Amino acid sequence: MQIAVLLYEGFTALDTVGPYEILSRIPGAEVVFTAAEAGPVRTDMGSLALTADLPLAEVTAPDLLVVPGGPGTEQALGDTAVLDWLRAADATTTWTTSVCSGSLLLAGAGLLRGRRAASHWITLEHLPLFGAEPSTDRVVFDGKYATSAGVSAGIDLALQLAGRLAGDAVAEAIQLVVEYAPDPPYACGSALTAPPTLLASLRASNLVVHA
């Protein structure tokens, strides 16, 4: 089973690495990182790069597609080569998935029209522009499309996918291996629980561009 993870300049690291840590442990999984060109691709923070093993042109028939989000989403939405590749890759996938604002790329490629989709809270309002129905759920399954909310939600998405692909026992074993047992120190990990003043300040600050 080939799992293709899309990289582009300005993606968010955990959107990618979180699902990778889960999905790469599924028996028989082959993960390939791909971008417009092979080589290092910088994350939104600039201090970290991941390596694209293959260019998009050489990843033609993935079984599972993972599209991360990040501030670079806006520029990627204007890249016809990326959108064309997403449509072509989707034609072969069993699952087409996204984390955070990566759902905007799927929607921009026309893949989420009429479907429910999750995204980072700051970008949810943009999904209807591409014909998708925004959802505040942390993970949304609609047909073969699975989307998740911001950044850390990609781990939840990947665990649910692992269960569907390899069975609950495998998914539970993976969760134990990575010791995924969230116990956040603050009750503001969601736009639904965060204080309105905090939401307002983040919307007005530069901090939100790194989400």
Automatic annotation (TrEMBL):
Recite the UniProt keywords alphabetically.
Lyase
> Is Lyase found in the keyword set?
yes
EC number assigned by the record? 4.2.1.103
Q: Where is the DJ-1/PfpI domain?
A: 2-161
UniProt key word Lyase: yes
Q: Which GO terms describe its molecular function?
A: cyclohexyl-isocyanide hydratase activity
By its UniProt entry, which SUPFAM superfamilies does this protein fall under? Class I glutamine amidotransferase-like
The alphabetized list of GO BP terms reads:
regulation of DNA-templated transcription
Specify the domain of life of the species encoding this protein: Bacteria
- Tell me what this protein is called: Isonitrile hydratase
- Organism (species): Actinacidiphila bryophytorum
Q: What is the lineage of its organism?
A: Bacteria, Bacillati, Actinomycetota, Actinomycetes, Kitasatosporales
